[in-house]
Amino acid sequence: MEMAIKRSEGPSTESSNQYFEARDFSELYDEYFDRVNRYLRCRVRNSWDADDLTTTVFLKALEKFEQYSRTSPFSSWIFRIAHNTYVDFMRKNREVPVDQEMFVGAEADETWQPERLTLLNEDIRMLRDRLELLTQDQRDVLTLRYFADLKISQVAEVLGKTESSVKMISYRALHQLQRMYERGDNQ
Question: Which residues of the chain have pLDDT under 70?
Fold first, then answer.
């Protein structure tokens, strides 16, 4: 299934009053695939599931691409699909989210450093444990904000919340994580 969408004269621009996404699906896919995959790897335990979910997100997006209004950022639209796909997956599987692989993200280091790897795994485990102590809203906001690299306004749109609400949730979550690290515990 191939979609041909004509491109306007210039690249897409974002201003407060006028926004129009002129790029076709293949360009948007290339730009957002890694970000969506990183977001989903952050949310689910198994990287294979994250890859499957990423494929599902882009298949849904392709099927509904003609319904995308192009007057709002594609990132808000695609991450809304990603978030809903994740929620559906969690309802069906009742999986505990987050895998250590996601936090490492990069390919293996050229030199094998077992001490460094052990410390990194311990840091990842501590962060994962502390993230699990946050509310679902706090985890949603932080993962969309920091793992999907979305702006506050885009996170708000994805989650159906106001920007001020997202800012407050983010502030409280980061403050709570900071207190956990300062105390040196997972409570």
Answer: 1-19, 94-112, 117, 185-187
